[in-house]
Amino acid sequence: MKRALFLMYGQPEGGMTNVDRQLGNTGLVDFADLYELDALALPDYAAVFVSMHVDQRYLATHADMIDRYLRQGGTVVANGHIAYPFLRDLTAFTPLRDYNVDDLRVKRQTPHPVWDGVAELELTFRRGVAGFYGRGGHQPPAGATVVHTIGARGLTVDFAYPVGRGRVLFHGGNDLWQFGNAKDTTARIVPQLFEWIYAKG
After folding, report:
1. Separation of alpha carbons 82 and 77, rounded Å
2. What total of structural domains would you count in the chain?
3. Local structure of 95: helix, strand or coil
4. 125: how many CB neighbours lie within 10 A of its CB?
5. DSSP-assigned letters across all residues of 122-186
6. Quick check: helix, strand or coil at residue 32?
7. Residue 136's Cα: distance from chain center in Å?
8. Could you tell me the residue range of the domain that residue 141 belongs to?
9. 98 CB contacts (<8 Å, ≥6 apart)?
10. Domain holding 80: CATH number?
11. Interval 135-148: pLDDT, tens
């Protein structure tokens, strides 16, 4: 079975955050420095994980490489607020302005296996505070499936879309694997993310 790849952002493995280790704890992930991307054989991996902390400007210079990987059947799981698009058809982040708590409420638009059984309320609030999941949105590409929006303005925070024989799952906020140690329904996200990756035919 192919493993997944986590692109580290210029830190040695010992400098991984606890959030990053949630992926490492699965035993299914290899870690490689982003700046060694040219030496990596992306088709050897079932999926590539891109953190919100990644150097987007550098990754954008490798957009063609990532696009080829996707078109050949790869999966990219990307997070963050996009300033330098590194995926085709991905647009820049639009931040919420003059918002209140209701503008941060997560609304599921389409069921998706990664969020199966995950309560919208528990995505909206962490330790009683709203806004960790999303504080803005991205315009989804044509043909994308919108999974979650936030607030009455309906800004898109989660979506999935095909690229050739591959696919992208995008979350416009903090890394999805931050929920690895959660004590509520959001703990389902990490294991279901891997089920989704490996369920691909």
Report:
1. 13
2. 1
3. strand
4. 19
5. HHHEETTEE-SS-SEE-PPPTTPEEEEEETTTTEEEEEEEEETTEEEEEESSS-GGGGGG-SSGG
6. strand
7. 15
8. 4-198
9. none
10. 3.40.50.880
11. 999 999 999 999 99
